[in-house]
Structure formats: C-alpha cells, structure tokens
Amino acid sequence: MFSLLKGIMTQNEKQKLTGDEEIIKELCVSNGLCYEKVCLEGSGEMVLEMFFSGFPRMVGLSLFPRLSSLTIVGQSISSIQGLEYCPLLKELWVVECKVNEISGLHNCVHLQKLFLYDNSIQQITNLEMLVNLHVLWLNKNQISDIQGLNSLVNLKELNLADNAVETLGHCLDSNINLQNLNLSGNKISSFKELTHLARLPRLRHLSLKDPQSIPNPLCLLYNYYIHVLYHMPHLQRLDTYDISNKHLKDTAESTVLKKMMYYTMRVRCAQRQFDELKAKLRQQRKDQIQLPEERIRVLTHMLRNMECELSHVQSAGKKSGGPEDLTSDFRNDHSHERRLQHKLDALKDRLKFWERRLEEVEACRQHNVALASDRRDMMVHFLLLELETVGNIRFEEGNTGEPWFTSCYDLLLSRFCAWDYKPHHITGIKINRIIRIHNRALRQRFQDKVHSLLCRQEPSPFLQNYKRCMEYLFYVPDPEHSCESDEILPILENGFKTADAYKALGRERAIPLSNSVSVSDRLRMTFMQKKSCSTSGSSHVNILPFRHGQLIISKVFLGRSAAVKEGLPIDCDHYPKANSVYLSTSSKEQKHTAQTAPDMLCPSSLPDSCDCKQQQKLWYMFDNEMVLPEYLVDFEYVTQDTSQPSPDCPSSSNTSPADAPSVSRAELDLDEEALNMEPILKPHPKLLSLDEKSILTVARANVLSQITVLNLHGNSLNKLPEISRLTALKQLTLSFNEFTHLDDISHMPNLEYLDVSFNHISSLEGLRGLGQLIELDLRWNHLTRIRDDMNVLRKHAPALLRLDTRHNPWHRNECVRMVVLGRLKTLTYLDDVFVMEEEAVAAVQVAARSRINQASLMTHSRTDSERPRSLSLQSSAHLLTQISPSPWKHSQDLESGWTTKITALNLDGLRLTRLSNLDRLVSLRWASFDNNELTRIEGLEHCTLLEELSLNNNSISRMEGLCAMHRLTRLSINSNHLQCLDGDVLDQLPNLHFLSVENNIISSLHGLQRSRSLFELYVGNNDISTTRDIYHLKALSSLIILDLYGNPLVNKLANYRIYMVFHLPSLKALDGVAVETCESETAKDVFGGRLNVDMVAEKLGHTNYRDLSELNLQSSSVRMVDLAPADLFSNLRSINLDHNNLTSFSGLIFLPNIKVLSLNYNHIESILPRQKVQSHMSNKQILYHKVSSSGYGQQNSRPSREGLIDNLEPLMSSLEVLHLGYNGISNLINLQISRLTNLRALFLQGNDISLVDGLDGLRRLRELVLDRNRIKSLSENSFCGQGVLLDLHLAENRIRELNHLQPLTELRRLFLDMNKILDISELEKLEVLPSLMELSVVGNSVARRSLHRPAVVLHLSTLQVLDGMTVTLEERARAELLNNEAQGSSSGGEVTLPGLVPLVTRPAPLRGAGIHSLVPDQQDDTHDTSRYRKQKAVVSLLRGVQSDFNFRQIRGSSSHYMTALQQTGYRVLSTFPNADPETRYQCHSVPRPPPPPPPL
C-alpha cells in the first residue's frame, strides 16, 4: 500500500514538475539563459527579470541561490513564494500582479528594496525580519491601516500612494531614518494626522498630492502648505515642489505665531468671561446669604445666651445648702428649665433651616459655575480646534443681527411643542446660544456624496426634486452610552459616527435624528431623571434635572427614504434601496417603546395633545457622509416659575444663573416666634474690658485659680489681659466679641475647649502653649491663610481632636479640608464631619508631595532638546510632559548627573511652599509651578538657560529671583499678589517676549519701559487707573498685543480704546479684540495733536506740573490744547508752541498765570473757534464740541466790532506778551484779540492783515508789530484805544498815507520800512506824534537819496533816530538853515539848491547801523533798464538781510530801552524812560540779547 501511494505521489510530482518546466524555460528564455545548463549556470546568476506574462507562479528560484535582484512585472502571481532559496536577495519587484498578501520574505534578511505596488494587498504584514530594508513601495494597493513597520528602523523611502489610508497615528514613530514618504491618493482629511509626521527627524521629501495621484482631502483645505512647513521645517520637497528656501519657512512660522497669539488672546477672553460670570455668581451668592447669615447670627447669639442660662440653672440645682442669691428658688424651678430646653430646641431647628438655606445657595452657585465651566471648556476647545485646523473648522457665535441666527431660532421654536412636556410643567424653551459650524472638510465630503448620488442613473423626478430631500434634523447625544461633551465635540470635528459604530453601542445600525426637539431629547431627559432620583438625597437644590441641554442641528440629504417596517430591524441590509428610513412617533413601534420605558417622555401618550405628533418623526440615516452638522444650540427649558423670553430678544452667550429658592415671610415669622418664646432673658451689660473683679463676677468664683469654665459670650472684648492667670481653666467661650487676634490666649496648659466664633479674627498667630486643647471653634471669622494658621495649630495645639473652620473667607476654599487634615493628623472631626481614615491618609500623602524631591523630579521632568512643533497654546513644560514619556523608569537606574539632562519640569498643583533642590537643573529650559503656595521666586539661580517660566496661582508678591534668567522669553505670573513691576528685574530679561501678570494688585506700569522686546503683554484685572502709565508702554515698539481689561482705567478713561490705539500705534489687538484700521484713523482724528497732561509728562519725563514755569513744545504737531485741570499749571509763565497746527487758543485760555505766549507759525483764526451750526457739524467737530476746552459754542460766528467791545468778557488777564506771527490772519475782529485786555506786546508779523481794526480793548498795549502784512491805509478806529503804545512796526506793507495816528500820543518808535509812501507831505503828518523819537522809512519812494531827512528833522522836533541813523544837532541846525534860506528866497521865484548835499551824520556804533542808507533811488532815471535792475536787486538783497537781522539803532542810555528777541531772528525795540528793563516782563521764556553798548 505504501509503495502504491509512493508511486502515486511521485506521479503527481512529475506532473507538477512538467508544468513548472515550461515556466522555468520561459524564465530562462526571458533572461538569456540556456534551460539545459541552468542547473550549472544558474548559481552564478544575480539578476532575473520577468515582464507581463509567462510566469504565473514563482517557481524555479531554487536554481538561482545567489540571486540579488528579482523583477516580476505584470504577472498573475497571487502569492510570493520560493524566496527561501534566495537568501542573498537585495532587491525585489513584484508589481502589477495579483498579490493579496505579503508573505514568503522571512529568509530575505538582506533585502534592501521591496516593490509591491499595484497589487491587491490589504494589510502590511510579515516584514518584521527585513531590518535592512531601505526602500518599500506599496502604492496602488488596498491598504487602509499603516502597521507592521515598527521593526524597519533603517527604512528610508516609503511609498503608500493610492491606498485607502485615513489616519496615521504613531505608526511611523519607529522609522526615524525615513527620508522620503509618499502618501498621495489616500483619504487623509485631518491636519492632526500630519502632525505625527513631525516626529520623523530625517524626513526630507513628502508627497500628499503628487501629479500622478489624486490629492488627499486635506490638500484642498486652507493653509495646507503653511501647516506642513511649520510642523516640518526640515522638509526639502513637498508634493514635488522645492521648498528649501528659508524665506518660505520663515513666512509659515511667522503666520503660525501670529495665529497662536490671536488664539491665545481669544482663549483668555473666554476665560475672562467665565471669571466675570463667577464674580457675578459670587456677588449673587453674597446677596443671597446676607439674610441667612444675619438670621444665623441672631439665632446663634440667642442660643448661646440660652445655653449659658441653662448651664447656670443646672449647676445651681446640683449645689447643696441654702440659696446662694435671691433667684435660687427661681433657678431651681424645673418648669423654667423645661422652658429653656424647649426654646433651645426651637432655636436649633431654626438654625438648621438657615444652615440648609446656606447649603442650597452654595449648591446653586456650584451648579451654575459647573454649567459655566462646561461652556467655557467647550468654547476653549472650539478655539483650539480652529487653531489646530488652521481655520478650516470655525465656530461662529450668532446674534440677532445675523439672518442665519434668526432662521435657526425660528426653526427651533417651530419644532418645539409644549404639550410634549406637560408632565414636567415646561412651558417654553429658551435659546441661550447658537453656534454656527464651518467645517470645510465635512462640507466638501457632504457635497461630494450628494453629487455622486445625483450623478448615478436615477429617474428624472428624483433629479428634479432632490432639494426636497434636504432637511434640517436634530440630534441630542444619549448620555447613557457616552458623555455628552465627549460625543458632541468629535461630531463637530469629524462628523457623525458610522452606522456600525452606533450598532456597537447597542443602538440601531443607523444615525438617529428627529425633526422634533422633544423626540430628539427624549433619551437624555430619561437618563437625567433616573440619575436625579438616585442622587436626590445629596442634592440641596430642587431644579429640573434636564433643564439645560445641547442639540446639534444637521443638514441631511434624505435621499430615497422609506417607512420603518414593523418587526424588521433598522439596518441598511433590510432596506437595500433606501438611504434613510423614518418612524412616526404615533406609530405602534413608538407606543411599544413608551410601554417598555414608561419614564420616557412620549408625546403620543399625553392626553389632549396637539397635532404636532402627527408630524414628529424619527429618522435613521444609513450613511454618515449624508449628515452635515451645521449648528450647535445651547437651550434651557422654561417652567411655569420662570419667564418666557421674547423671540426678538434671545439670550446672550451666558445663560442666566439659576436662583436658589426664595425665603418666604412665614420663615421670618417663625424666627421671631422662636426668639420671643418664654423665657425672655434680660440683657446683661456688655464688658468692654476685663479685670480680676469682672472675671470673678462672671465665673461666680472667689479665686482665679479655681475657675475651670469661663463664658464671656456676647460682650465687646478685644483683649484678655488677665486670662493667663486662670491656670485651671478648661473651657473658654469668647463668641460674639470683637477679637481680631488671640495673642492673650497663650500658655494655658489645662485649656481643653475654646470657642472664638463670631469674632473678627484674621490670624491665629500668637496662639501658644495649648497642649491640652481638644476642641476649637473658629466659625464666622475673617481667617484667610489656611496653611499658616494650621501650622500654628500643629505646633501649639498638638492634641486637637475637633476643629470647626466654616464660614471663613479662606483663600482657595476648595482645598481647605485637605490642607487641614494634612497638617493636623490627630483630628477626628473637621467642620462637624467625621474624618475617615482613607481621607486622612490621602491628605498626608498630598502633604508629603508638597516638597520637591527625587521622586517628583523623576515623575514630572523630561529631557527633550527641542520644543515640539504643535499648534497648542499650552506651555512647553505642559506639552512635553503630556506627549513625551518620562525618561526615568526606576530610581536604581539613575546615573550620576541625571538632573543635568532635565530640560522640562512641570510641578503644577503639588502645593509647593518653596522651590528647592533645583540647583542641579542647569539645563532646564521650560518650567511650570502653577497652582502652588509659593510666596517668592527662589531656587532658580542656577537655571540660567530657562526660556519659559509659569508661576500662576501662587502667592508671590515680588519679581525678585529672575535676574539670572537672561534667556527667558515667556513669563507668566497670573493670580498672585504682585504690587509692582520691578524695572531692575525686567532690565535683566532682554529676550522677554511674553509677559502675563493678570489678576494681581499692580497699580503702576512703571518699569515696563525697560522690557523693550515685549510682543505680548497681559495686565488685566489689576489696579491701573491713570493714563500716565500708558506712557511707560510707548517705549515698547514691538508690542502688538496688549490686555488691560478689568483695570479701573478702562472704565475711567473716555474713549479708552482709541486713546490706547493712538498712543500705541503698533498694537494689533487690544483687550482681546483686533485693532481695526478705522479705529487707528479715528484715534488720529480725535487724539492727534492733542496737548494734554499726558503729552507734557511724556515730553518732560516727569509729572511735577506745579514746578513747571516754562514749556517749549515747538514742532510737536499740536492742534488742540487740553491742559486740565488748569490748577496743575499754576506756576507756568511762558509757553512756546511755534510751528504747530493750532487754529485757536483752545485750552490755553484756562491757564491762570501765563504771561508770555508764542504761537508763531500756526493757523490761528481766533482766540476761540467760531461756533458752527449743529446740523452742519462733522462727526469730528461734534466730538470736539463735547470737550469744553475746545471752545465750540462759546461765541457767535462773526461778531461785530461793537459787540466785541461791549459783550465779550476779557480772557487771559495775566497775558502780557503774545506772538502770532505767520498764522495767515486776515481779520483782527474775528481774531478777538481785543479780549486780551492786559496785553503789553503783540506780534502779528507775516500775516495777511489788510485793515487794522479790533484793537479797541488793548488799552495797555505798548508794542505792536504788524510787519509783512497787506495794510494799505489806517482807519479812524485803527488805534483809537492805544494811547500808551510806544512801539509800532508797520514795515513791508502797502501804506501810502499816514492818517489817523492822532491817538498815539505816547508813541516813541515808528517803523514804516518798505511801504509805498511817495510824498514828503505824508511824513509831515507825523507831527501829531508828540513823543516820536525814532522813525524808519527806508525802502519807500520818499526816502530816495535821503532827500527827506531835512524836512523830517525839521517837522519832527522830538525825533532822535531816522532810518537807523542818529539825528544830530548839526543836522537839525542845517535843516533849519536850509528852511530859512528857502523861505527867504521864496519871493524871488523858484529856488533851486543844486549844491545842497544831504547831511550824512556819523551813525551810532551799533551792529548793522546805517544799512538802509545804502538803498538807491528806485525812481531815478526809470528809462535806464540796467540801472533799474541793479537797484531792484539791491533792494531785494536788503529786504532779505532785514528779514534775518532787523536791528534798530537807538539813542540814549541803555537803561531806557528793552529788547525782546523773537523766534524769527530779529529784534523789536521799545523804550521805557526811567524804567528798569527787568520790570517789563515778569517771565522770560524767550531769551533776550545783551543790552546795546552806549553810543560814541
């Protein structure tokens, strides 16, 4: 039999061998080998190739043992085999075949290149032995999961293009040598998957959408390249593009950093809103507990009195012998004792009621805080998701101004039916918030799916009415199968789960949706009801358990739909032609569901329900890609005791907090009834101080040493000077007194019970020597420092068993119990609650972890050399400890110097009191010590490489200890006790880019000006109240994000936002809101050129305004003055505002003591601006109109001259010198200069004045400069009020006639240079000036060749200087002689004096004297063109010289003259006979030249 079987097997082998021979022959022919010699020559072959056909199976490879390269293309091979005979194989190609599994490679340990593309492989398996593999191509297969590559540590190139890969995860983390990766043509749709590739340090080439494959869905998203370049900056090529340019990567990184800054700001805003709501809830709680606390205090006070009285009655009854006092019979009355006990019981019952009331208020607050915290967490998650997806998922919170919000709101109301909630007394629904979801990937997937369905062969009616298949349906997560938030967030990010995933949860194999709010919320309501029933005993607030909820509104393409068949499971296999099925809530299936779950809310089971149930349906979608989540709604059910909101005014983003039940008047009546019960005790007199006599009286004792019980309840004591003498005292009651400390209660060795409740104790320091103290009552005091106070008790009350600390404003109240139990290990009762053993052990363990030791360093440290590139807002220390495993396994394995390798340390929440044992962490770069009990920054002196440091939520009061951290870039010290920002410390942090000091008590920003590298500054919720602090920030030229929210300055400063934008133009975001371009423009309009106290402080560098006497702000672009309050500048005498943009005096008119004001080169139109008609005012002018200092609305538009004199009140009564040169002034009446009645000197040179008028009120004017104007003549009213004028300058005008000068009886000097005076008779008119001493008419036609001098000297007898030259006695005598001769010969006809030469006297020895005598006669020989041009050139030159050096020659003693030097560079001279030159101007802001030398 065996031989027969052997023969059969041999025959089969022969047949198989015959078939293989043909394949081997084909192999030999294709590779040029001889089949007959292959057995001999095959061992030398190293390369074999087989293309397209003739090789259906891998056979005959045993003939080629030295084969190193095998290529098989286009064959029908289904499995890899026969390679066990080729151990030296290095390169294998099995491509375009039908291979469905990777196998047969276990002997190819030298394989370096493996190409298996274009096959039917579904899983990556059996590659564990190929440790030398460098190249692996598996593209064009059916692979959906990347796995089995962990052992390929030498892999350099991996091609997985054109597969079905959706996720990456950590599958490639082990392939650290990977350099080239191709994932094109897959289904990767999330940026999160790409971040895993950042862990491949040598990756240089990445393809996600190469030209030969379709792109991955994520490649179509926004910011795709930015995301890749930021996370993988080492890439050289991306999708076949060269990206090695450093500029590209810098741009990507800069963009991402800006986005991270923006979302950091947004997250802080969300946290701020949460903090504000918590503050409101705290205030609400404070208001709500005010009445209970008051009642508790009153009732407890009475209770203590009754207990004291009862103890006296009981002690009196126990004593034997005669009565001790007159009331002994009354005290021994048992009925009195029973009444006392009855009243005590009534008081205790009322106290229990109010204690419950306090618990209800607190429980209500905690419930509201929990809701707000959930909303905050969700909003933060939304923001982080926006950041991680680089804006491809966005969440838009709606408001009533958005059309989509109104539509969504109306949809919800239309799908809500109050009949469905009738058993719960729900009358309405309140929409608290609607968030619109913009998910680009999901929307693209939805659109592609709908498009693909419509493109199939469908009947035409379906194609025409496909929009009818679009529906908006609701979804509420089932909390029984998953946490609500845990399910909602993935849906918004990745869409709904597949039908199979819902089947795995025990539900139908479909996505359940509904068109009714009640139907979609049914499962949640049922679950919350059951949960509430099971935990009702621990709840103090009777609220609707499912009042607050969330639902998702999705856009659904129903496609082909069908009704659910009775008895048939909801499964796509049972409805092959349907995309969805629906179930009516009034159907039998729904009734059956209601019967099996009677607690479930079922609309059809309600009597007298409306017709809404006929339209209510449950929809089941089989394909999750046909459901697009679009809206997330926060809603709240409205019951009969709450109001229904108006549809026109939906709620804001924060839901209204639930209020605790109110207290009825009946409860207060019960309190009064208990308080007024018999017996009514007589009030005893309160002790204000304590001495030996009063102690003996209260204790009813004779000797202090015998007193064991002392009750001092209800007095007004604040000290106990004699208490230490009571050495035998065991019980001491001090409730309801005025104690603030317990220093007197010390060294009382027998004291066992101490009651100091209802006092004002703020600290237990001073409590000493209470070794036998067993019970201590500290309720209702002002204790805040739990750790310090418990340390006192641990040291000085070691035997304490019972402690009550309730109703104290503890700092961090949530951890009080744990801190107390961790320090007082002997306690058995804490706050009237028994201490469990497990609780005590846990507290001790927590206390033990509050020190930095080797164990904590091993657990919370990392050694990464670089910060991971992640779009996360967490600090580097937090991020590294989350994503990186601890490098330390066991303490025994630690090598010496292991601490020097630590780069990241996260010790948050360990209740550390000090930083120690960190001196060896010399490589530390990122550290976080948040949520501890640190009081100062210490122990980091050796951490000089530190880059990021977080110290939030501690008790640090100073910034000392940071000076050695020169590399620090980010510093966060939020929620501490900082009072200032130390500039010396910040000066040592030159690289600081980020500083956050929110929630401190900082009152000034002084010192920040030394931190010039800051990009982000967060100083919210501090005590900054003055605009002066803003000027400390102007030195921060790189500051782009500033947060001052919650400081008093924000509410105190009008136009706060644009004020900040104006003074800090580099800002991109302020208080969590981006700075818009229009805000910058508005800021420039409102605050540009505004001279106020802040600008003065900035220019001067100090704020000592009262010490300021001179102010020089030339060329400062000032266009408005608002130096309020004016009292600050009471000592200011001189102001120089030349070369600015003022159009009026503005706020200068309110400065009380200004004497000299220089406003040259401005645009002054009037002292006060003209009033504009309100309806024609621009927005900017309306804003200025509201500012009193702007001057709007204080006068008429064009007042008449008489009105100015009679009606307008004087201004600036102290002003004496006013410079208004070069302002373009054309009308002196509109200038209102007449209101400056005390003016002594007025300079109006270089304007456009044509008529001298409006000077009537300047009756004290002594010097008037009108040079370089357009004056043609003088009117009768020009100088009618200038009777004391001494100097008049009218040079460079157009005057032809000298009329109406009669009022100038005191005029000493008159300058008429460069005018158009032609006739000598005009000069003779100056005889009306009896006091004229100096005259200049240089440049006039009448002064040609100085022929006018004799006549002028003759007619002006008081003249001393003419045209800059002294009039001597000789010249005057010669003029008289000539005049006499002319008169004597007048009878003989016309007299000609050809020999008369003008007398040229010797000029006075002043610089520039006689300069105008060189002016030639411009009218002589007008036909001589060349001569005329020369004369004109000389005149022009002389005019230019006069513009720069206009010196006037004077005569007489220098003590008679005063010179005022102008900013324009020339002098104006005025004469004051017999006057001291120092007495003319009391303020000398404008420098004066030295007095001129005396004449020769």
Structure in words:
The chain has 1496 residues and is α/β, with parallel strands linked by helices. Helix content is 28%, strand content 13%. It is built from 34 helices and 51 strands. An eleven-stranded mixed beta sheet has the order 38-40-41-42-43-44-45-46-47-48-49, with no helix packed on it. It has a ten-stranded mixed beta sheet with strand order 1-2-3-4-5-6-7-8-9-10, with no helix packed on it. Strand 24, helix 19 (816-823) and strand 25 form a beta-alpha-beta unit.
Helix/strand layout:
Elements: H1 2-30, H2 38-41, E1 47-51, E2 69-73, E3 91-95, E4 113-115, E5 135-137, E6 157-159, E7 180-182, H3 191-195, E8 205-207, H4 224-231, E9 237-238, E10 241-242, H5 246-318, H6 328-331, H7 334-388, E11 393-397, H8 403-414, E12 426-439, H9 440-455, H10 460-464, E13 470-475, H11 484-494, H12 499-504, E14 511-514, H13 517-520, H14 522-534, E15 548-557, E16 561-563, E17 580-584, H15 588-596, E18 617-621, E19 627-639, H16 665-675, H17 692-699, E20 709-711, E21 731-733, E22 753-755, E23 775-777, H18 786-796, E24 802-804, H19 816-823, E25 829-830, E26 833-834, H20 837-848, H21 854-860, E27 861-862, H22 876-883, E28 904-906, E29 926-928, E30 948-950, E31 970-972, H23 983-987, E32 994-996, E33 1016-1018, E34 1041-1043, H24 1048-1052, H25 1056-1063, E35 1069-1070, E36 1073-1074, H26 1077-1087, E37 1090-1092, H27 1093-1100, E38 1110-1112, E39 1120-1122, E40 1134-1136, E41 1156-1158, H28 1179-1185, H29 1201-1206, E42 1217-1219, H30 1228-1231, E43 1241-1243, E44 1263-1265, E45 1287-1289, E46 1309-1311, H31 1320-1324, E47 1334-1336, H32 1349-1355, E48 1361-1362, ...
Parallel strand pairs: 1-2, 2-3, 3-4, 4-5, 5-6, 6-7, 7-8, 8-9, 16-17, 20-21, 21-22, 22-23, 23-24, 24-25, 28-29, 29-30, 30-31, 31-32, 32-33, 33-34, 34-35, 37-39, 38-40, 40-41, 41-42, 42-43, 43-44, 44-45, 45-46, 46-47, 47-48
Antiparallel strand pairs: 9-10, 11-12, 12-19, 13-15, 14-18, 15-19, 17-18, 25-26, 27-28, 35-36, 48-49, 50-51
Helix pairs in contact: 4-5, 5-7, 7-16, 18-19, 19-20, 25-26, 32-33
